[in-house]
Write a structure and sequence with these properties.
Oligomer: single chain
CATH architecture: 3-Layer(aba) Sandwich
Helix content: 40-55%
CATH topology: Rossmann fold
CATH superfamily: Alpha/Beta hydrolase fold, catalytic domain
Number of domains: 1
Distance between the termini: 30 Å
Number of helices: 11
Largest sheet: 8 strands, mixed
Shape: globular
Length: 309
């Protein structure tokens, strides 16, 4: 369903157990991702646990509003300004994206929810907890980072894969070139122990294209919001909601020290390191990795349900 929130049209999907639920979980997807990229087994496990699950397409992703009029950001200039401690102008901020998520809760009439974010979504979820702690039952930051300078150092092979995106996919064969790029990149950030198959990746890419083809300029606007959000690191100490930080031991895109740093900065946060997991819970989550994440996530959510009545 499309909902009006924060001046935008945002696509949201709600799954609830029969007979109602004690609480809702807000799932916030990562860079360029869509709500269909959450593993169905993870969503179903949350519903089976008696939780309502709210997924949304972030702005500039999926079926939500794409802000094409804001153009292509100068990521090099934004990164330089951020590194120097300045506040670069960006098309929008992670706080704006957090307000989108809160607006979805408002529209759906959900007063409080568990905030669960993945990668960029983890950073947005942190911003939700900072902006409106009274709306957050708990915070789960999966494969995220604090925004602290010098920590986010992807492996060289992953950077090479990320940089190999075709420049013009409108030419003949462009769709196949784009598919090969995403297969290379997603394979590069996936678990070496539990990798997705090429067939699984191709099927997910085809489903994504049918819904809304990846938009590289829109993704760059999201990336600009991440790069410009360096102040968040110093603010995480203000978070007082129960927090779980989940990170893959083998993550080559947002390396484990990022998760360790996030957990150190949030008072009382618990760090759960998932063996054999890389940066690959989405868009194709291996059943074993989903199981390991749920083994940490479900007991944590159950421990922080709202009081009855």
């Amino acid at each position: 369903m499309l909902v009006e929130a924060n001046g935008l049209r945002l696509e949201a999907l709600v799954d609830e157990p029969q007979g109602g639920c004690a609480a809702h979980v807000l799932l916030i997807m990562g860079l360029g991702g869509q709500l269909i990229h959450w593993p169905p087994a993870l969503v179903q496990a949350l519903v089976n646990a008696g939780l309502g699950v709210i997924r949304l397409d972030n702005r500039d992703a999926g079926l939500s509003t794409h802000l094409d009029h804001l153009g292509k950001p100068n990521l090099g200039w934004i990164a330089t300004r951020a590194w120097l401690g300045a506040r670069p102008r960006v098309p929008y901020t992670l706080t704006d994206m957090a307000n989108d998520a809160l607006g979805v809760l408002d529209t759906l009439g959900v007063a409080r929810a568990h905030a669960v974010g993945l990668s960029m979504g983890a950073m947005i979820a942190q911003r939700v907890a900072l902006a409106a702690p009274q709306r957050v039952l708990s915070l789960t930051s999966i494969m995220g980072a604090s925004g602290a300078r010098g920590l986010l150092k992807p492996k060289a092979r992953v950077m090479r894969a990320a940089a190999s995106k075709p420049l013009d996919t409108r030419r003949p064969g462009g769709d196949e070139a784009l598919a090969r790029y995403y297969l290379r990149f997603l394979s590069a950030i996936s678990s070496p122990t539990f990798p997705p198959t090429e067939a699984e990746l191709r099927a997910m890419f085809a489903e994504t294209q049918r819904r809304r083809s990846p938009d590289s300029v829109a993704t760059q606007r999201q990336l600009a919001a991440i790069v410009a959000d360096g102040a968040r690191a110093a603010q995480l100490g203000r978070i007082r909601v129960p927090t779980l930080v989940i990170h893959g031991r083998e993550d080559p895109w947002v390396p484990l020290p990022c998760g360790e740093d996030t957990a150190r900065r949030i008072p009382g946060a618990r760090l759960a390191v998932i063996d054999d997991m890389a940066h690959d819970l989405a868009p194709v989550g291996h059943p074993e990795l989903v199981r390991r994440v749920l083994a940490e996530l479900l007991p944590f959510l159950a421990a922080h349900q709202p009081a009855a009545g």
